[in-house]
Amino acid sequence: MSVLFLEESSGRSTVFDFAGLSVSEDIRRWLAAAVARQITARSSVKRLQTARSLVDAARHFAVVLSQHPVPAQCPADIVGDHFAAFRRRYEHLKPRTVAGYVETLRRLLHEDDRLSPSARQGLAAIRVRGMSRRETTRQTYTDAQWQVIMTALRREVRTARDRIYGARRLLADYRAGDLPAGSEHLLLGELLDGFDRTGQLPRKANTCGTPEVARCGGLVTVAGMLCLSPHELAAFALLLVTLTGQNYGTIATWPAAHFRPDGGLTEDGVALVEACKPRRGPEHEHMIVALEDLLTVDDPEHRWSRSPLRVYQLLLNLTGMARRHAGTDKLFAGRLAKTTAAATSPWITTLRIQHGQRWAEARGFPTVAAAEPGGTPVVSARCLRLTAIERRRRPVAHTATTMRDIYLMPHPVVQDQSRTVIAAALEAEVTKARDHFRVPVFTQAFVDLARRDPRAAADQAGVEPDQLAGMVGGAQDTVLASCRDHRDSPYDPAGTVCSASFLTCLDCSNARALPRQLPIQMAAIDALQDLRRHTPPTLWARRYGPRLQQLHDIINAFQPAEIDHARRAITAQHRQRISDLLEGRWDLQ
């Protein structure tokens, strides 16, 4: 009972055997079928490491089933406690490691129709406190940290470019016969010529370089004059991550072939590269990446390292010789310093994330365990991509919803910016609402104008002269304001008397405030503030908070001297009227 997995990128095949699991035959077949469903050609599992993690989860779960006091002879016998026991099996490990095991098992058995509904609920209910992969805070770099990493990457790429370009000029001079006879440059040119044509350097019987090679620096030095090292290839990949926002793994598999819509006839333009991102699923894993060159900076040295197209073209140029001798059509090709038991060929055709980690360590960047707050940042391809997406604010190989919910929303800086934007929008709406329901205030100067020239004052206030006369004279007073027309209420049909509570007059478009009402309005403010101490906060904020704000808006329209005079004019009758209003006695009249 086994499952065959074929890795697309390398062509390696692996057989996973389930016959040795210490569970029943039915469960062994069930677990093997679950793994087989996950690693089909139509699934998103394309790498051997991912397939192995699924198989390991199945094997570990089989051990849990065999040791659990509740026996399980078939998938229908599995209960939620079996999954809880799987969680407890890794109690001694770090939370993030435990979360990885749990999520892998959940992925393997997701919506398995042979599990009972209660068992599926038990699997979904497993939680690793404070540390799920999706709940882990994804950190991005500050501007200062970003600049430190970008400077190191550009320096690495620039050094490699200058070294290879210099060696090519020397090789061209040698082939043109321009080097002086007997010089060190002539010897080095001869070695570079042979290396460029054959991919090999002269060696002695013990595989060490000949004395001529040793005089020029040794095998590693001479070969590195025309080829990129693993560290330099990793620097190129990380730089492209920062410029495009693509995944490191996706960039590492880019081909050397591309399409130029302009035919390559213009200096600026776009190169279209076919890429593959298996995690998007079989229908969407193949995609076209557009590498643009939209910079307008005149300085070429400043421009090339900030243009995705120019970095791609430079890498394509520098890896040409390694690609020719390695027989590969991939963009990332270089040469190892020496062969090993694991790497029998000196030519690099596969770039992995470990190359980026080794480059960072070699350039003095700390590991996660050794990092210090406020010190040199840790170089992480994931964090570089997150930062690039945050800066671009455009989806990269994912939907706009994924960018918003997964990449941007969890970030503290984005959350702070979102709070600021939302707060400003809410404040604007509150201001708009207050302006809409703010009671117009007739100042003392306006009242004097109304007595001298009623027609001009009525035109200025937008009311009829007889209505203005009634408000100024006090015939149309309510408890807290004056009413323009109590038979034109927004709460009742036109022509009928308003039946709304006097406390809601402050919300009505008919309300107007006059100077003589200032004392009772200030008495209402005092009563509302006293009431706050004896009323549940939520109830007070909903029922009386808006009224207090409206009254403050009214008194703020008057001068401080008028306010002080009105406060001294508050009488016991004013306070009694406000008490009757708040207790509802006015609404019963």
Q: What is the mean predicted local confidence, pLDDT?
A: 84
Number of helices: 26
Biggest beta sheet summary:
2 strands, antiparallel
Any idea what the radius of gyration is? 39 Å
Q: Alpha-carbon distance between the termini?
A: 90 Å
What overall form do the CA principal axes indicate? elongated
Give the class from helix and strand content and strand pairing. mainly alpha
Structure write-up:
There is one protein chain. This protein is mainly alpha-helical. Helices cover 52% and strands 6% of the residues. The protein has 26 helices and eight strands. It has helices at 25-38, 48-67, 80-89, 95-108, 117-124, 143-176, 184-198, 211-215, 219-224, 230-244, 248-252, 300-304, 308-318, 320-326, 353-362, 381-392, 400-408, 412-437, 444-452, 454-461, 465-473, 518-532, 537-543, 545-555, 560-568, 572-582, and strands at 2-6, 13-17, 269-276, 286-293, 334-335, 347-348, 482-483, 511-512. The strands form four sheets. A two-stranded antiparallel ribbon has the order 1-2. The longest helix is centred in the N-terminal third of the chain and has 34 residues, at 143-176. The termini are far apart.
